[in-house]
């Protein structure tokens, strides 16, 4: 049965590749991106609805949620795919560190604002996370934005850990009401990822040797498509973090239910949303 699937970060990389594959499979794909030219090009290629939103501006996220709510009677799948690793420590217009806002606060806000529709649709919420959550993530509730020890890869890893914790708490709070949630690591994908960063990852992603060991965007989108098309309980379980279509065996030791609850409450407080 065709589903209405909203994908953020769908103008390039695995978001665009996933949108193409899901469209080919007969689903109604909604393309969300930051760059007007690339977002429009993908949407026109697919004959799909599209919206523009810059996740460094939370007002854009609020406008996006309102537009999606008005335009679509139901949303079966929300794929929170937009994100990235950036350069020097930068504050957004909202006052948050850019990596933290784009990768965690913005999708947290979008999902929260669409929650009534997602529950009514018995939707799945999918987060594009990363193995960086295990390798680099270090979440301190009193220093979520790494004011004391910022590096690009540390900020990125912590934000990707936040994606996994958000998934766990979405499951705990809403699965009994019909919502399902999952996070996944797409692998090292040969895209423009990290090209604007000052992290060592930029050198890896720009090197010929590094890219030789990376997968194509289409391959990187495999789990996105699998999770979006498959009903929870039929191959995947809500609340889990996946690598290669299997629950990840190695995880950051901070991946606990207690920290997931605490992060949710702190994030809601920062955004002016109800904590419970």
Automatic annotation (TrEMBL):
GO molecular function, one term: oxidoreductase activity
Keyword Oxidoreductase appears in the UniProt entry: yes
Cited InterPro entries: NAD(P)-bd_dom_sf (IPR036291), SDR_fam (IPR002347)
Pfam families assigned: adh_short (PF00106)
Entry keyword annotation includes Oxidoreductase: yes
Gene3D superfamilies xref list: NAD(P)-binding Rossmann-like Domain (3.40.50.720)
Record keywords, A-Z: Oxidoreductase
Entries under PANTHER family matching the protein: PHOSPHATIDYLINOSITOL-GLYCAN BIOSYNTHESIS CLASS F PROTEIN, PHOSPHATIDYLINOSITOL-GLYCAN BIOSYNTHESIS CLASS F PROTEIN-RELATED
The protein's name in its UniProt record: Short-chain dehydrogenase
Taxonomic source organism: Streptomyces sulfonofaciens
Species classification: Bacteria, Bacillati, Actinomycetota, Actinomycetes, Kitasatosporales
């Amino acid at each position: 049965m065709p589903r209405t699937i909203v994908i953020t970060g769908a103008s390039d990389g695995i978001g665009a590749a996933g949108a193409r594959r899901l469209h080919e499979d007969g689903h109604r794909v909604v393309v969300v991106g930051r760059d007007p030219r690339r977002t429009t090009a993908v949407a026109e290629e697919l004959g799909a609805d599209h919206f523009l939103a810059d996740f460094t501006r939370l007002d854009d996220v609020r406008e996006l949620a309102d537009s999606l709510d008005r335009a679509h009677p139901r949303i079966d799948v929300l794929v929170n795919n937009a994100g990235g690793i950036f350069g020097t420590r930068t504050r957004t217009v909202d006052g948050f560190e850019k990596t933290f806002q784009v990768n965690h606060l913005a999708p947290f806000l979008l999902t929260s604002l669409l929650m009534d529709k997602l529950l009514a649709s018995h939707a799945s919420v999918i987060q594009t996370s990363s193995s960086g959550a295990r390798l680099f993530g270090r979440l301190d509730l009193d220093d979520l934005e790494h004011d004391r020890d910022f590096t690009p890869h540390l900020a990125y890893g912590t934000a990707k850990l936040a994606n996994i914790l958000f998934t766990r708490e979405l499951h705990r709070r809403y699965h009994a009401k019909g919502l399902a949630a999952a996070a996944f690591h797409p692998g090292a994908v040969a895209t423009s990822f990290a090209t604007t960063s000052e992290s060592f990852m930029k050198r890896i992603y720009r090197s010929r040797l590094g890219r030789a060991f990376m997968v194509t965007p289409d391959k990187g989108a495999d789990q996105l498509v699998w999770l979006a098309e498959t009903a929870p309980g039929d191959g995947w379980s809500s609340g889990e973090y996946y690598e290669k279509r299997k629950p990840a065996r190695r995880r950051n030791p901070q991946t606990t239910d207690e920290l997931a609850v605490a992060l949710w409450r702190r994030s809601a407080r920062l955004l002016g949303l109800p904590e419970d």
